[in-house]
Each structure stands twice: as structure tokens, then as C-alpha cells.
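The instructor's notes for this session suggest beginning with a concrete chain rather than abstract definitions. Hand out the sequence below and ask the class to guess, before any prediction is shown, which regions might be ordered.
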Amino acid sequence: MNLLMQLGLLYFINLFVVGPSVHKIQSQYLHFHARVFDSDGQFLADEWESYEGKEDLCQIGMSSPLFYFTVVFLWVLLIVRELRTTERLARDVWSMPSCRLSSQMTGEDTSHSVVQVVALTPCVRSLIYMLVILPKLVICCTLMYLGCQWLTATNSFADLVMNSIAMEFVTGVDEALYETLLPVAHRKQVADINFVTYRPRTAGRSKDFAAFKRSFTY
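After discussion, reveal the predicted structure:
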């Protein structure tokens, strides 16, 4: 349900929001270029002075490059945060041992009375990658692309900020569904399940260097 809703939102956002906004801004610039430039591409100062769409054109986000690139940069950072969370999940799933039977996947921590996932069957591992990790990557990359398009096509400085905030709600659909539709008892039961991840022992400096290298890559 969550996956279908997020993918559906992306489809309708592209169809009803991003597409028309891009078309509108392209038409606006085409009209400006046809009126203010001659056939040789020379700027006509007199036509610009009498151009009726001057105020609207000056409100386009890209007319202030510093402000525009700052907002787009922050928007990309928000998506990169989601990508890094997904990448950590992928590494944790990859690092878990394999087992043949589903009964071998879990164990109980008697000292804390919680269920621990200590291994994954190949089928479960594949399903996690196909139904959780891969869709999250696709959604994040698509959302980043659509968001950059929409921000570029924004014709108001105020909307430039508001649009970046509005697009982020798509990434929170899964948490909203989880917290709203599932009963508290079930959420507590899920929260009590711990995944025991296994990482190779490395020196502290090597581990820190690997972490900084991943951050630099992002």
C-alpha cells in the first residue's frame, strides 16, 4: 500500500504539478524571447522597457542564481539524507548471515525479552532488496529529479521555498501510514524486534576513514 501510494503520488505530481509548471515557464520565456530579441538574437532594450511580463519574469527562481542554487542544494541534501538511510539499510541487510530455514532467522534475548533477527534466508533477503530498498532508491531519485524540475520552473521566490518543503512530504508517507493505521500494540511489537548486524572488525581509524569516504562520495 505504501509503495503504491508513493509511486502514485510521484506519477500525479509529475502529471498535474511539475509538467504544467515546466510548460508554463517555458511558454513565458518563449514569449519573452520572441518579443525582446530580434531574429539575430540581439537584445532590444526598447522592447524590454515596454514588455508587460517584466515583473513576472523577474520572479522566476533562476533570476536570482544564488538564492535558486541554495534552495536546490538544500533540496538535494534532503534527498541525499534519504539515500544514505537506504544505503545503510542495504549494507545492514547484506552483512547479516544467511540461513536455510525461516525458523533459524530469529532468536530471543532472554535478558531483555526481545526478539532478535540473527540471520536471513536468501528469499527474505531478496524480498527486502526488491520490495523495500530498490523502491526507496527509485522513489528518492525520481523525487529529486521532479523536485529540481519544479523548483527550476517556479515563478515566485516565495513558492521556491514552499515548493521544496511541499515535495518532501512524499518521503514521509510510509511513516504516516505506519503511525496512523497500525495499532499501538503492533507498533510496539515491531519496535521490540532487533536486527543483529555483523560487521568485520576494523581498526578505528580505518572505520572512520571508510565513513568519511562514503560521506565524500555523497
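Then share the key points. Residues 2-96+123-181 form one domain. The radius of gyration is 24 Å.
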